[in-house]
Amino acid sequence: MHEHDLTDAFVVGGGPAGLGAALGLCRQNHSVVLFDSASYRNSSSNVSDLRMHMVLTWDHQRPDEFRAAARSQLQRYERFQYVPVEVRSVQQTMRTISSGTKSESVFVAVLADGTERMARKVILATGVKDVFPKIEGFAESWARGIFHCLFCHGFEERNAESVGVLAVDDCADVPTALRIARAAHQFSESVTVYTNGNAQLGARLAQRAAKDKWCTVNTLGIKRLVSPETTASSSPAAVELEFTDGTVRKEHFLVHKPRTQQASAIPAQLGLEMTPDGDIKVFDAMFETSMPGVFAVGDCASPHKFVGYASTAGGFAAAGAATQLQAGY
C-alpha cells in the first residue's frame, strides 16, 4: 500500500458532530475524508420547513442550510475531502506501507459503491434513529405535533390552550413524566399527562402532582393519534388522541422523548462497548471508544443529543485523534 493511499482520519457522518470533527482535523493540517450518507435524524417528511434551535447565530434556521454552510467552509482546506456516500463497514487490519518494512494498524472502510478507503484513525458521527412507541399515528404526527425536546421545539407554540405529555416507554416513570410536564407548563396553563392505560403510573403521578392545579392525569388506553394536515403553528389542535373507550381529546402538541438505537451497523461491526442506553461508550474527554484509534461523537455516543453539544464534541475528538497521529500511534 502506498503512503498516498492512506488518509490520516475518516469521519463517518455529515451532521454537526462529523462536521465539527472534520474542521478540527483540518485546522491541524491533517488529511481527512468526511463520508456523508445524507441520512439525518432531523429529516422529517412531516414538516417541510423544519427549524433548528439552541445554536448561536443559527437559531431558528434550517438544518440543511447549516450543514451546507459548514461543508462550504471546509472546502478552503486542501487536505479535506467530502464524499457523499454511505460507509457500509469499517474493519481494523494490518497493512505494510510502501515507505517502510513494518506493518501498521489501519482502518478499512467499505463504501456503498464497493470501493475501499484506508485511514489511521476513525471518528464515528453516525447518529441514532428514534424508536417510536407502538401507537397508531405516532409516526405521522412526529415533529408536527409531537416534540421530543422543549428546548428545541415548543416556544413557537407558547400560549397554547392545552398540551399533553405521553408517559410511555422510557418516559413512563414519575420523575421523568413530571419533569417533562413542568417544562411543558412554560408554554400552556393546562398540561395533561397520558399514561396509555397504565393505571398504576397514573395513580402515582396524580398523587405527586396533586398540588399542581395545572396538571391532570389521563389513564385511558390510546387507540390512535391523528394530526391534521396543517402544521402545529397554524392549528389550534395539532393532535387528536382517540381512546379505546371511544372518547377523543385534542392537544396543541404532545411531548415524548422516544428511545433511540444506533443508526449504523459500524459500532457493532467493530465490537465497540455500549452504554445501557445503547449509546457508544466513550472513556475520556477526547471521546475515544473501547477500540484504540476509534472515536465517537454526537448522538451516537451521548445522552445529550442536540446540535451545540455534538459539534463541540466533534472538535474534542479531532484533538484526540490529532494528538495520537502526531505521537505516531
TrEMBL record:
GO MF annotations in UniProt: oxidoreductase activity
Keyword Flavoprotein applies: yes
SUPFAM superfamilies xrefs: FAD/NAD(P)-binding domain
Any Pfam family: Pyr_redox_2
Domain FAD/NAD(P)-binding: 8-304
One of the GO BP terms on file: cellular response to toxic substance
InterPro entries named in the record: FAD/NAD-bd_sf, FAD/NAD-binding_dom, Ferredoxin-NADP_redctase_2
Record Gene3D superfamilies: FAD/NAD(P)-binding domain (3.50.50.60)
Keywords: Flavoprotein, Oxidoreductase
Family affiliation: Belongs to the class-II pyridine nucleotide-disulfide oxidoreductase family.
Name of the protein in its database record: FAD/NAD(P)-binding domain-containing protein
UniProt organism field: Aspergillus turcosus
